[in-house]
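task queued by scheduler; priority normal; single chain, no ligands, no partner chains; default sampling; output format set to structure tokens
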Amino acid sequence: MGSTIFSVLFVCSMLAILAGCASVPPIDPAANTTSVPTATPLPVISTSTTVIAFPTPMATLTTHPTPSPMTISMQAPTCPAGVYPMIGVQAANGIASIRPAYQFPFGPYGNLSLSAPIAMGVYRGASHADKSAYLDGAFPESSWVPCYYRSFIQDASQEEFYNGLIAEFRRVRAENYLDSDQYLELITSFVQSIPYGTEQGAPKFPVETFTDYTGDCDDKALLLAALLAREGYNTSLLYFAPEKHMGVGIADPENPFRSSGYAYIETTGTFLVGMVPERIQGGKELRSEPMIIAISAGRSYGSGAQVKTILSAYYRSRETIFVQLPTLHNDPDLLNTFLGNGTIMSLYESLNGDMTGSASFREDVLILHTIASHLNDRAGIYRWLTSR
């Protein structure tokens, strides 16, 4: 162009989520390991003040049609002038479409199956897209980072994919008579079940994550936010810059994450909606205030109070066990090991000499283990707890 524009190259840039959230395996829901992935640090971008003309306006994000009468209200703020990631549909080269198929566990419904058609031209266009943001001038992160991530979610080329996948979710909802909160949990459980991978490079478009059968924290968060937005939920992305981590937010007046107004959803493993990971890789906690990237307006999550009851019982039982078994040194991972292999009662006996008082201890073990092994069944856990 004969002039210099600065490129926010997310293969290796300040938004560190892109390189992958960690080099650790995905969370085992039965073990309830609450250590989740993080990403790698990136260098600082350069700036330019050159005025660049673009063929299409980039300041307004568009709203795409929903696959049903349900209306989506996409957030469409003004974005700094520039070019954001977009899919350029490519030739199919002999294979017009494929249909990835999944099985995933969801509460008492067992392993559910779904699949959705993928146009290969769209998938190839997504996987070969330039995933950098080219901005004209220097802008604060708060102005262009939300626009960058929304571009992955709102690209019109993915609407056929979204429609096909959402049709599958609606089929499951109808077959099992799910209410609004259970339906949100169904979609969440599916995304959480996608194998975690530590891909290097920029974020994936949601169509890539689904087709590749893998994604890291930002990849899976983008897919979940896209689906929930199109199903009429009040959805956001929660970006933790210092910790290099991303989650999803769903409006929840009963169990919000700090003062955000959103319940936190962790996508890298199986967690309840509103269950915040205690730490990420390296033992770090999510201490920073997240950048809240609003994706859509809509319905709130209505089971936050139940989640709070479940988590209260979980952490209370765990702390009681730690008091009884000081040899665990308040180590949740070590506790999970004893819970998982069934030797925790033997450990209790060896430390106490006999099983006097073991009834209450056994109850705490039962509560902890039941919750930890049923994190994709909020309604079932709550009924079990409140019926005891």
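post-processing summary
- Residues 1-20, 22-72 have pLDDT under 50 and may be disordered.
- The longest strand covers residues 245-251.
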